[in-house]
UniProtKB/TrEMBL annotation:
TM segment ranges: 338-361, 368-389, 395-415, 427-449, 469-489, 510-530, 536-558, 565-584, 628-649, 661-680, 686-708
Organism name: Ornithinimicrobium ciconiae
Protein name, per record: Uncharacterized protein
Keyword set, alphabetical order: Membrane, Transmembrane, Transmembrane helix
Top-rank taxon: Bacteria
Keyword Iron among record annotations: no
Coiled coil: none
Cytoplasm recorded as keyword: no
């Protein structure tokens, strides 16, 4: 392309990206969020709440023929997928009940060894006071060890919070079955009212809250037995009682989304919504703790990390609701199960193909492969539009969807005259990635829930906004896009060999410099807003990294040297922007804040240091627990060394790339973002890993295009 064509292309891509992101922002502002918003909060109506814990209960267990009672509860009540995550990724039945009792992720072990088949010992004591229906007191011998283990874990769960809160407010809690006793116990591991009977133990009018263990649901037969017992229970419930049926644990040694439904007579039916997940149809066990307390008329204490659920009205049939629950659970479970296999096989195939294409000198093929790899992340998000999780072979459907979507990205990237420029196709793919991930975050993050590169809600780390993997993709693609477009707008302003003419103090910038600064500035504002806004990305750690990287890139686009004073000003600006976003979130009501506002509150309360240390412990712990993460660290160090030491052997391999305007400055900005993002996020190595993958794929595509363009020019001149 000519210089003027370069600039027209750059402005066109810039305009399309800005227009699409602004359109998504306007749609979100007008209420067009895919995830929806909260509905009517469940409030206390009667004096009794009955919780039936059915560890392992999944949406696939619920059918009209085999579980008619559950089917009707879903149709007449409100239901959702349940994230049961305890202190470990696999949640045993005892862990699930302890998590319900603590209102925070917990586990029934003190040495890290899980035995999901074990039922902890509960020792019956004297008759309860007041003595009712034959109840006794009980103690849990292993309790003290669990408390000590909880204190050593980062989340510091306070076991027995549910029982303590109810007792402090003059309410009583009754446990039916040893596992239910774990949820009903107080802080010392004592249960005031206990019976060995399980689901059959319910008696009306005995306690404000009754916890009943229904046993582990391992298959359809177990679900049918549960259903028959629920039918008997419903006949005994008072008219104003609220029933909660929850699959509190995983099963088959596999983490996944379980089922939960809340029912009471003549309630408004619908979908459960949680302010902690910000997703309709997805709640956490800790939300159930807060909900049970609220239904009993008790204010949830600060130790409960969940929030009371609300009900989004929904007029769908029971079949449609069950189908939606199965769909969401299947997509989330499938994304979790297939993430490592698909990524692992894909990386091996890509490396093998890259080797073959390089050895055979097929630079056009190398370029297409680089573009395809660069397009993989956005394709992985867009794949959520295709119900690949349905059917007998989800891995095959997902793989085909990914191949088709990557092919579409590459076809678009190579469709116009911009393909003749080394950076043209890469800029198109970067633009599509920014739009796909940015729009998804703005509109509620539904694609991120079901993507193999999404937030992975089963781990209960994030359910909305910008997760670490998504941030690495979004930030690197956004910085690449800004740098590549600014470089195209700088065509003709470079010194021989590709080095920029540094602006002298007091000199006026030319129009092409100003255009580059404008592009970096406008795209930068959008990137930071999308990532850091409490309503969208709600990402605190990523904002300073982005602001610093954009500041460096903006200086480079303006041909202004980086000095110590300017570096300090950029760092200060990053902190100010992050603080403003955090303060804006803190101003919102407590039950609508994200972790940004909660961190601001922790600063006020004096607990900020504990949070920082916990995140640092998690970040460093990943390097110990997952040695493969050191691969990303080594690659990061090698690339930084190559960029900063151009005369070294790795540096000399990259030298042809630096002839492209602003590319070296763009890479430096990306690397700065990755290093700071790693330092400020609790699982920051994920930012580094996926960010480097995007950067390396882009470098391969640009290098191959650069060689092809040089080769064509030499052929014409010869």
């Amino acid at each position: 392309m000519t210089d003027s064509a370069d600039r027209r292309f750059a402005w066109a891509v810039f305009g399309v990206v800005v227009a699409l992101l602004v359109a998504a922002i306007m749609a979100s502002t007008l209420g067009a969020r895919v995830s929806g918003s909260g509905g009517e909060t469940l409030e206390q109506v009667g004096p009794e709440v009955v919780v039936v814990g059915a560890p392992g209960l999944s949406w696939t267990d619920i059918t009209e023929q085999s579980t008619p009672t559950l089917w009707s509860l879903v149709g007449e009540g409100a239901s959702a997928g349940l994230i049961v995550r305890g202190a470990h990724e696999l949640t045993c039945p005892s862990d699930g009940w302890l998590t319900l009792g603590a209102g925070q992720r917990a586990a029934a072990n003190d040495d890290g060894v899980q035995d999901c088949a074990a039922v902890p010992e509960v020792v019956p004591g004297d008759a309860s006071t007041p003595a009712q229906v034959g109840d006794v007191t009980a103690t849990i011998p292993a309790w003290d060890g669990w408390v000590e283990a909880a204190e050593r874990r980062p989340l510091d769960a306070e076991l027995g919070t549910l029982g303590a809160a109810l007792e402090a407010d003059g309410r009583c809690v009754r446990a039916g079955g040893p596992l239910a006793a774990l949820g009903a116990a107080g802080p010392q591991g004592q249960v005031g009212q206990f019976t060995q009977d399980e689901l059959t133990a319910y008696a009306p009018g005995v306690c404000n809250v009754t916890l009943l263990d229904a046993g582990v649901i391992a298959d359809q037969t177990d679900a049918g037995i549960l259903d028959a017992r629920l039918a008997v229970l419903l006949e005994r419930l008072p008219d104003d009682a609220t029933l909660v049926v929850a699959g509190l644990a995983d099963r088959d040694d596999r983490a996944g989304v379980r089922a939960v439904t809340v029912w009471r007579d003549e309630m408004d039916s619908g979908v459960l919504h949680s302010a902690t997940t910000r997703q309709g149809g997805l709640v956490q066990t800790t939300d159930l703790t807060a909900t049970v307390l609220a239904l009993a008329g008790v204010e949830p204490p600060d130790a409960v990390s969940g929030l009371p659920v609300s009900v989004q009205p929904d007029d769908r049939t029971p079949a449609e609701r069950v189908g939606a629950g199965q769909d969401l659970a299947g997509a989330i479970d499938g994304a979790k199960a297939l993430a490592i296999p698909v990524l692992g096989v894909g990386c091996l195939l890509a490396l093998a193909l890259l080797t073959v294409l390089t050895l055979t000198g097929r630079r056009a093929g190398v370029r297409i492969l680089g573009l395809a790899a660069m397009a993989f992340p956005s394709s992985a998000f867009l794949a959520g539009l295709v119900p690949w999780w349905r059917g007998p072979a989800p891995w095959l459907t997902l793989s085909l969807a990914l191949l088709v979507l990557m092919a579409a990205h590459v076809a678009l990237a190579m469709a116009g005259g911009w393909r003749r420029h080394p950076v043209g196709p890469a800029a198109v793919v970067a633009a599509s990635t920014v739009v796909v991930i940015g729009a998804d975050v703005i509109l509620g993050g539904r694609l991120g829930l079901t993507s193999i590169l999404g937030v992975q809600p089963i781990t209960a780390g994030r359910f909305y906004g910008m997760g670490n993997v998504g941030y690495g993709i979004f930030a690197v693609s956004g910085l690449l896009l800004a740098g590549l477009l600014a470089g195209l707008l700088r065509s003709g302003t470079e010194a021989p060999g590709g080095s920029p003419h540094p602006a002298r103090a007091g000199s006026r910038l030319g129009p092409n410099h100003l255009s580059g600064v404008l592009v970096v500035g406008v795209l930068g504002v959008l990137l930071v807003l999308i990532d850091g806004s409490p309503s969208w990305g709600a990402d605190f750690g990523g904002v300073p990294a982005l602001v610093v990287a954009l500041g460096l890139l903006g200086l480079a686009a303006a041909d202004i040297r980086l000095t110590p004073v300017r570096a300090v000003l950029i760092a200060a600006g990053a902190l100010v922007v992050a603080a403003v976003l955090m303060y804006a979130d803190w101003l919102r009501p407590a039950d609508t804040r994200t972790h940004l506002g909660n961190f601001a509150q922790s600063v006020i309360d004096g607990g900020a240091l504990d949070i920082v240390l916990r995140k640092l412990d998690q970040s460093l712990g990943i390097l110990v627990r997952y040695p493969v993460s050191w691969v990303a660290v080594v690659i990061l160090v090698v690339i930084i060394s190559a960029v900063l030491a151009p005369t070294s052997w790795p540096g000399r391999q990259l030298e042809p790339l630096w002839r492209i305007p602003l590319l070296r400055s763009t890479v430096l900005a990306v690397l700065t973002c990755l290093v700071i993002g790693w330092a400020l996020n609790d699982s920051g190595i994920a930012v580094v890993g996926i960010g480097l993958a995007v950067l390396i794929a882009a470098a391969i595509a640009i290098a191959a295009g650069n060689w092809a363009g040089t080769h064509r020019a030499e052929t014409r001149s010869g």
